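Hi Y.,

Following your request, here is the sequence exactly as I used it, all 508 residues.
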Amino acid sequence: MLCARTILKIYFSLIRKNHIILLLTIFILTACQSKIEIQDISSPNILFIAVDDLRPELGVYGNKIVKSPNIDKIANDGSFFKRHYVQVPTCGASRYSLMTGLRPKKRIHIDNKVFYNETSLKPEKDIPESFVHHLKRNGYNTVGIGKISHSVDGLVYQYDDRPSNVKEMPHSWDRFIFNPGKWNTGWNAFFAYSNGENRQSLNGQVKPYENANVSDEGYPDGLILNSAINELRKLKETNKPFFLGVGFFKPHLPFNAPKKYWDLYDRNSIPIAPDPDIPEGIHPVSLGKMGEFYNYKLSDEKPTLSQPVSDEYARKLIHGYYASISYIDSLIGKLIAELNSLDLDKNTMVIIWGDHGWHLGNDRKWGKHTLFERSLKSALIIKLPGKVNKIKKVNSIVETVDIYPTIMEFCSITPPYKLDGESLLMKIKNGEKRKKNIAYSYWKDGISLRTNKYRLTKFFREEEPKIELYDHLLDSNENENIAHLNHELVDSLMPTLMKSIPKFYELY
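Below is the corresponding structure, written out as tokens. Let me know if you'd prefer a different format.
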């Protein structure tokens, strides 16, 4: 018969052995889990969603009127950038800076023809390597759908022409897909009306808005979504990581969206622009022209800088812009739902990017093409796989050129050349401070510097004043140019602005 002491020794020995076994089990499981996590993120997928003319007019950005629940959820699960600025306030040139990670160096870099001149017609070795091209060379399956560069189907041709065989980004895509549906060509689809007509076919005899009682597929963006879902399913079956670029058209003019999205809003509750007048102390030439709007000849009213539209018409136009956002929001929600159902979300970075802002009657302007905050500031949302987005709302100033290095760092790929931006990855993960907190933007005859507190713009033109300065702590709507009252401040900021001035500007 064993004594009590012997029994206790045996008991504690077994506990120690089991404890060791337990610890070994936990260690192995942890190691395996760590290995799985490393494997999952070693070759992550990227879903990049470009939304044309999307200024940060979303619920998550503080707009209490617009209905954008799906994008808001992505932003709240990821990170949204409160102060993201584009390099150029026009579609093609902004997307060129996005793709190359470079600020404008030549005048063609601020023109919508930039892809045609800089990538379409040159040998592969002579062009800046887009991040899509670089991902492709590093083993990624690259697929584009819709408007990613400038042309909506990735081909170079004019609005009224038949599509050509000339690709805007010939070295970047494994596949580029676009279904024009009943509109027959990409550009026809871009300016589509629900009856199969378009702005070109009707010689501009159209209104800049439409709310037809049709399904989501009654406009081309619904077809873009269907193509994107089909491609996701195909990409799921491959053994390669992928980059899928999806470029939606709306809320670009015309503000056409299915009626159900218009019905989400009470027009009378939609406020007009809080800054409807031309800023004090500027030359009107700073606001440019509104030629894009005049392509819609049946517009209820014709806005000009000298004659603003009525409040009633302003609300109708803003109503159309918001309805278009809600339409795209619904499509993005369906795309993300498919990503999740395919179990791809666990290994996919999601980026939502607006190519520039838009004046919705701000400063009496309807359109883009200015160096004001409304035109340069756009939406940027990044969601990493898993729960690693520690910083939800990022208040730091960031630029479109920062997206390229962010993708490269996340994919553990060395960029092909020195980029002008800096990665946002550590900012997202742990709030790490950025080396810079400034943004540069360019348009026609001017360059603009955005700092934490100020916007300084220098124009190279004959019209005075050539310098504009806005204090964003006191004047967030840029209502008054205070450059003439703050010469010392202008002088202190000017060297920073001049550091990034392209050679094509005449320095006077």
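Residues 282 and 465 are 6 Å apart (CA to CA).

Thanks again,
Q.
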